[in-house]
# Entry
Amino acid sequence: SQQGEEDPQALSIQEGENATMNCSYKTSINNLQWYRQNSGRGLVHLILIRSNEREKHSGRLRVTLDTSKKSSSLLITASRAADTASYFCATVKSSGGSYIPTFGRGTSLIVHP
Amino acid sequence: DGGITQSPKYLFRKEGQNVTLSCEQNLNHDAMYWYRQDPGQGLRLIYYSQIVNDFQKGDIAEGYSVSREKKESFPLTVTSAQKNPTAFYLCASQGAGELFFGEGSRLTVL
# Structure
């Protein structure tokens, strides 16, 4: 079962613009993570936000978490062609002492130079 | 360098054959995972292991088997019982809450 669902499925922007991707989920979580995947490669961890946090920054990335709405957003500012990739959210909740990440379907981002 | 190594990167299999995908890590992580990725489906969990000699089924374990005899290694066998095995397989280990992924193995059934 997929806990998180990203929106939009695809996003096409020009270099220099901001890109915003959203993730909605259904049940309570311990933390939420965002990953990036270049075509045909493994995923790379971008940022982790805990359930008691509302916002985190890392370079050009800004992540927000609204547990009341069960949603998160990833903002990439001043996008570059090199940001072209798929972006996934992963929700993590406790299950019998384990913390299993569950992924959404991802947002495909294309940044045109 | 520390990381996750998956092999082979590409694998072709005839129907009815079992194949084993290798996953090795030198990050000293206890937890390891196998995910399957299909176009438009995101990542789905096949099996996971929190400690040596123990593993649990994920959401789509049917037709797959794993072992965890060493902390560093978590091989996945795709058996002939898996009806639609063509996919991209990703192995990961978990440390400090985040997942570290290998580069994936692409399996094609001919």
User: Anything to note?
Assistant: Residues 23 and 83 of chain B are 23 Å apart (CA to CA). Chain B is about 0% helix and 55% strand. Chain B has a mean pLDDT of 94.
